[in-house]
Amino acid sequence: MHETIGDHPLWRIPFLPGSLSTVHADTVLITWLAMAIVLVTLGVLARLHPVTQLSKRYTVLELIVSALSNQVETILGRNGVPFVPFVISLFLFIFVMNEIGIIPFVGKSPTADINTTAALALFAVGLVWGVGIYRKGLGYFGHLVIRPLGLGIPMLPIMIIDELARPVTLAMRLFGNIFAGEVLLLVVAAVIAAHLGALSVVANVFPLGVFLFNLIIGGIQALVFTLLTIAYLIAPTSDEH
């Protein structure tokens, strides 16, 4: 029995060279579906606000929005207020992309594709650098030099590597956790389909546990990615020299 992991149906874009001419069709389509879910959800939430009669769904969404808003303002202070809508959207978007893969017949989670997580990480870190340069000019990168200079100069190469590694670690952490969950589901399904006697019978009990595991991991990883993005925004939004 052969199973393939990481294969995607491709769209080909004419006039682009080499690998740039191919796009993972399933990743793009499911990402659009996740965007639609987030937009409709937030649109309904906005239209219902303020409400005269609370529902469970509204209460849960309001709790998420309030918690993220308070987290941003607590960490970044008043300078973080403009980033509250971005942080809420980022968390909900990643959360939906993480979890959509466990819905039967939908397909793989977009965040199980390294291209998706790399794009998210580059956007997040690019935003941080853009805000820093906008507010402080190129002097923003002065935070890479630790004081006193006797310690800062020898540590400068390490600080530069740490700064450049941020998008890599953000992308790989999210991709690795979600992809591992997808592989785990595939392995369980393969064992069940292989009719390996008692092992296949026992494996029939595992899918529910794997689904719950992926559900929890998807939420945690969405929160981790969002909190790290908030933490990276401390330096560019801080008023301290």
Note down, in words, how this protein is organized.
By secondary structure, this protein is mainly α. Helix content is 69%, strand content 2%. The chain contains 8 helices and 2 strands, in the order ββαααααααα. The protein has helices at 25-48, 56-76, 84-99, 114-136, 149-193, 198-203, 206-232, 234-237; strands spanning 10-12, 22-24. Helix 2 (56-76) packs across helix 3 (84-99) and helix 4 (114-136) runs antiparallel to helix 5 (149-193). The radius of gyration is 21 Å and the shape is globular. The termini are far apart.
Care to give the gist of this entry?
The chain has helices spanning 25-48, 56-76, 84-99, 114-136, 149-193, 198-203, 206-232, 234-237, and strands at residues 10-12, 22-24. The chain has 241 residues and is mainly alpha-helical.
